[in-house]
Amino acid sequence: MPPVPLALPLGAAPVLTVPAGSAYSPPDPALRAVFATQAAGIPLLSRDLPPDLVAHIPQCWAQLQVAQQPVTEGHVAAWLKKLAQLVTNPPRS
What we know:
Blueprint lengths: L28 H11 L11 H17 L5 H12 L9
């Protein structure tokens, strides 16, 4: 499915960063509804949305970019180590 961009006001987009190690927080239900509407192919313009909702879109985009970064082998190893405590027959170290 091709991406459907939300028409935002013209101008230089601010560069947003997400602090390293910050916890993911899902978008508000209203913003999730906007994303679902866009995914369904229904066109939306920024004038169709309240300004405070449009203001949250760049922060959600920054969180998405951070979430899409590939994980390192160290992250996978740490995750597997934590997972081994949850299974009844973990592999021997």
